[in-house]
Amino acid sequence: MKMSVLKDDAARLGWIPAVLSRVMLRLEQFFGLEIFRVNTRALKAQREPAALPDITIRKVTAEELLEAANDPALELDPRFVGEALARGDLAWGAFEQGKLICYTWRATAKAPFTDGVWVRVPSTLQYGYKSYTRPSHRGRGLYPAVGRVADEQSRELGHPAMLHLVNVANVASHRSASQLGSRKVGYAGYFKFFGRRPTFRTPSARALGVELYLPRSAPPPAHTQRAGWRADAGRP
Prior knowledge:
By secondary structure, the chain is of the alpha+beta class. It has a single domain (32-223), classed as 3-Layer(aba) Sandwich (Aminopeptidase), CATH 3.40.630. The protein has seven helices and eleven strands. It has an eight-stranded mixed β-sheet with strand order 2-3-4-7-8-1-9-10, sandwiched between helices. Strands 5-6-11 form a three-stranded antiparallel β-sheet, with no helix packed on it. Helix 1 (3-13) crosses helix 2 (15-31).
């Protein structure tokens, strides 16, 4: 552990969170233990977003998603798109001159999580995953803008809150989540044990209806990512 890096983190986050994050990272590395804090964030009425010149933000149709899957630059596999649509997942995106440049997915039943593990989503909530912005359009605030529109329309569809699972070692993401109005409900996680992944959850997470699980015929984890404040946190 480099003390200079630890001091920098402590200056930003505080000593206890900085040390705790490193302790949890060591537990994950040595014991194959993955623990995530289960958060919910109420979806509130949004202020009118700032206009983005020449950009249109809306829900992406099934036909547009299947067409986008033919563009390697968007990292949308046709099989993934077909399976997501079959589950009832929805996608919102930003378009420029009719071209999809940014997207985010929302699930209302189940969704790929990480390491081949999936998350079961309570019916009243939505779970955000697999977000992406074309490299040529990053740094323009597209992902937050798409998220605001998705939040507003999700409320209209009858989903009062979002579900987020944040790795307990990711202290910075916890801070960001709290600033955006997330509240902790409980914890869930799994062990990496001789090729198996037994899962667990606290009673409060069970009461909410959140569950991590490994499908009977687990698909390859090509479309999953480390869970943080949001999936694919660094991409958009």
